[in-house]
Design a protein that fits this description.
Elements (H helix, E strand, L loop, with lengths): L9 E3 L2 E3 L3 E3 L14 H12 L4 E8 L11 E2 L6 H12 L5 E6 L15 E2 L13 E2 L2 H20 L4 E6 L4 H6 L14 H4 L1 H14 L4 E7 L10 H13 L5 E5 L23 H9 L4 E3 L6 H9 L5 E3 L2 H5 L3 H7 L16 H5 L30 E5 L3 H12 L3 E6 L7 H5 L10 H12 L3 E4 L5 H7 L3 E4 L3 E2 L13 E3 H6 L7 E6 L4 H12 L3 E6 L14 H10 L3 E4 L1 E8 L5 E7 L5 E4 L3 E5 L3 E2 L2 H8 L4 E3 L9 H14 L12
Parallel strand pairs: 3-4, 3-13, 4-5, 4-6, 6-9, 7-8, 9-10, 10-11, 11-12, 12-13, 14-15, 14-17, 15-16, 17-28, 19-26, 20-21, 20-26, 21-22
Antiparallel strand pairs: 1-2, 18-27, 23-24, 24-25
Length: 664
């Protein structure tokens, strides 16, 4: 067996990395008033402590005209330097190098925050921001180049070990490199050599500013995935130009454009791991500089394979280390089963960014709260006997949090296996990775000493008989029919009925999407794969509208089209009646116009709000038990809310009010 490359050191100019795993640059929304925060320092330090070979921070803006989103670090202000020092000192305590990524987003931005015109190579509006930028003149280009050098100086003064120039998915440099957005006819437009001129000028200016003691890298886009955009051949040619300067120490890679093809940059679980590795592979063949490869790596074995196959020299693992900051250390020690595998669900990392919230993780409540101490063990003097009813994500997280602090935890689950609705969600096409949430929680619960009893349906009497000190009720929710759907109509089923196999729709099926997420779209695909003729109807403007923030919407459209799934929007159910042939007639009102429409499917499948199953909680509360309600039993929501509920309640359980001598 060949020697593992993943743990071998590598030289990046003056910087030595101890292993080949990079915590690559990604947005966090942790900045406040344009400045880095204590949360930045705690966040990066946790990944350094977890063994990352190299950390590259999120982008730092190089110019006042660049303010595309609210919580951006304004690297052009000297006020950032104390914050930089807090970050670098926190990371260096763990003997890990940290680079700063610097960038100007160019035309992929808005004037909403800056109140200044957006700058770009040409007046080409970005499809997301839809704002026509100002084409920069020669004087402004010189100002841009100088601003990169100034921010690089700030980073050097702040203790960073290197600088990475973001020239890939959202950058004014990418705008110059791409023929789709660079329509200039001067020395900065036309040929690829001219389009790359500003990049080479920035490289020279930054190297002059930081000297030889700091590393310098360039992140390039290998394929923009847009009409007339940068291709892999262009990227290879630019990489050769960058290497020829003799001033760059490595090249990082990317795919897509952060607006038009963002769904391919931060790909969800529907996209296979390693999907963009053709880019670093091509660059590594063309140049001698070390190459960083990225592309949804969630397992150290995947990273090792890419290195062994010569596709890259380092591997960027972002979401894997967001989910588990000890990703590298666990892999290095051989404890891969202990790794909290990333789900690639994009709900609390990418999705929260899209909602202008700070970065978190659906399965790790500590992510984004490192500076607050969330998720840390706070051992109690005397543990309580804690009984958790329900082994879904809320119940398991409550059990984990309570056991972490020293309580004695037992979980009762009426089903033969754990997971609740998460287990069902993982059974649909291309959603199997979502089941890793259950796998991860079960493994952590087991290591924490949590006991789980399956096939046990808890009642108030049986709970009281166990004499617990504290009870956490995590019994979930149950399907609920809307007012217009008769309870005795057997051809109307909930999505859960379909996934559990208690309903078997055939023929033409209308799936009603009132949740706007994977519930309707996943079941629609499942039924289409089974040969049904499927139409998804939504009262909203878009079927599965919340899939947009997790970057699943575009690929859903592609798959729905390929499977013949019809999508109909802005239609509100108003009632059902019997058809002439005994079928179902669903009356629908077109919300904007008030006009009425009908459908006559063989089956109706409901993706609608469910009802909390909280009866046990009420009974125990009335009996005077110290009882808490979490997850869907409290209020039906999505998995991230269930995990947060469980963590909050489990971590807050106090010590027992009896002495150790009397315990038991």
């Amino acid at each position: 067996m060949p020697e593992q490359l993943i743990w071998s050191p590598l030289q990046l100019g003056p910087v030595t990395v101890r292993n080949r795993i990079v915590f690559s640059a990604h947005l966090t929304n942790y900045a406040q008033d344009g400045l880095p925060t204590e949360q930045h320092a705690a966040y990066y330090a946790a990944r350094a402590a977890g063994g990352a070979g190299l950390i590259i921070t999120e982008e730092h803006s190089t110019h006042p005209t660049d303010w595309p989103y609210e919580k951006l670090i304004h690297g052009f202000h000297r006020e950032v330097i104390p914050g930089y020092r807090r970050i670098t000192e926190a990371v260096h305590r763990h003997r890990v190098p940290i680079f700063a990524q610097i960038n100007h987003n160019g035309g992929q931005a808005s004037s909403l925050y800056s109140r200044l015109p957006v700058w770009a190579p040409s007046p080409v509006a970005d499809p997301l921001f839809r704002e026509v930028p100002k084409a920069v003149d020669a004087t402004e280009i010189a100002e841009i180049v100088a601003s990169y050098a100034r921010v690089a100086e700030h980073c050097a003064e702040g203790g960073f070990d290197g600088i990475e120039l973001q020239c890939s998915h959202s950058s004014i440099v990418r705008g110059f490199l791409s023929p789709a957005t660079n329509r200039r006819t001067d020395d900065y437009g036309g040929s690829l050599g001219n389009r790359a001129r500003i990049l080479l000028e920035i490289v020279a200016a930054v190297r002059a500013a930081i000297g030889a003691d700091l590393a310098l890298g360039v992140r390039l886009c290998g394929d923009e995935l847009i009409e007339g955009g940068t291709t892999i051949d262009d990227a290879v040619a630019v990489a050769r130009m960058v290497e020829a300067t003799g001033q760059v120490d490595y090249i990082n890679t990317s795919i897509g454009v952060a607006t038009a093809s963002l769904f391919m940059i931060e790909a969800s679980m529907h996209i296979p791991p390693g999907y963009s590795m053709f880019i670093p592979s091509a660059l590594r063949t063309a140049v001698d500089l070390p190459i960083v490869g990225v592309g949804r790596f969630k397992d150290p074995l995947q990273a090792e394979r890419a290195l062994q196959e010569g596709q890259c020299d380092l591997v960027g693992v972002v979401r894997g280390q967001i989910a588990d900051p000890d990703f590298v250390a666990k892999a290095r020690a051989g404890y891969t089963d202990d790794t909290r595998l990333c789900l690639s669900c994009n709900q609390e990392c990418v999705g929260r960014m899209g909602l202008n919230r700070w970065l978190g993780c659906i399965e790790n409540p500590r992510t984004g709260r490192e500076a607050d101490g969330v998720g840390e063990a706070r051992p109690v003097t005397v543990g309580r006997r804690v009984l958790v009813v329900g082994a879904g994500p809320a119940g398991l997280q409550a059990a984990i949090a309570a056991a972490r602090n020293g309580h004695h935890v037992t979980v009762l689950e009426k089903a033969p296996q754990a997971g609740g609705q998460v287990r069902l969600a993982a059974t649909v096409p291309n959603r199997a990775e979502f089941g890793d949430l259950v796998r991860n929680q079960l493994h952590e619960a087991g290591r924490s000493g949590v006991e789980i009893e399956y096939g046990v349906e808890a009642t108030a009497a049986s709970v009281l008989a166990r004499r617990p000190d504290t009870v956490v009720v995590a019994t979930g929710s149950v399907p609920s029919r809307p007012w217009w759907a008769p309870a005795d109509e057997t051809r109307i089923a909930d999505v859960r009925d379909v996934l559990e196999g208690t309903a078997h729709p055939t023929g033409s099926v209308l799936v009603l999407d009132e949740l706007g997420f994977h519930h309707a779209t996943s079941v629609a695909e499942l039924l289409a794969d089974r040969g049904c003729s499927v139409e998804v109807v939504s009262p909203g403007m878009v079927v599965g509208q919340d899939l947009g923030i997790t970057l699943d919407l575009e690929n859903w459209w592609i798959r729905a089209g390929a499977k013949g799934i019809v999508q109909s929007t802005e239609l509100v159910p108003m009632g059902v009646e019997a058809g002439a042939d005994g079928g179902i007639v669903l009356n629908l009102q077109h919300h904007p116009t008030g006009t009425m429409h009908t459908r006559e499917p063989d089956w109706i499948v409901l993706a609608v709000p469910s009802a909390p199953l909280d009866g046990l909680h009420r009974e125990l509360r009335d009996a005077g038990v110290d009882v808490h309600l979490v997850g869907d039993a409290l209020a039906p929501r999505r998995a991230h809310a269930a995990v947060i509920d469980g963590e909050r309640v489990g971590a807050a359980i106090p010590a027992a009010d009896r002495t150790p001598a009397l315990q038991g």
